[in-house]
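Hey L., structure's done. Input below.
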Amino acid sequence: IEPHTELENAVRAVKDKPTILSLTHDIADAHPVVRNVGGRYVGSFLHMFGFIFIDPVDFPLILQDDYGDLPAAKREYFERERENALYQVHIAARDIRERRPDIILMSRVEEWKQFLMMQPDMKQALADYEYVSTADNVEVWKRKEKTVPLP
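Output:
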């Protein structure tokens, strides 16, 4: 696995030795970055593995609810993959809420981000995070700092 020097630098700029969770499709986005920055991985999955073997042309179809006039076999395939994606999103949202990673590595695939934000539990979990930068084609998000009002 090739090191992601640019991504490692972007992560280090946010926090030293951070906790990290990945919402990307490639295991190489989180590994070896976590190790190389002295961080700790807190997600249940190393990446959103359900989409690794899907033809990128089909990706937007899997993320929708209505498959229209597709042949039955292809419709069933998309429905299974969508259910798999929903399961992974639910687990990742739980991990974010419970483990509160310092940094989230986010996919730059726009359809995937839209799908994530359409899921209420993920939208709520990501509300405490903000985009920081993009490096090595991965977005870096950090947990928002809570401000305490002065008395």
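The chain has seven helices and five strands. The chain has a mean pLDDT of 84.

-- N.
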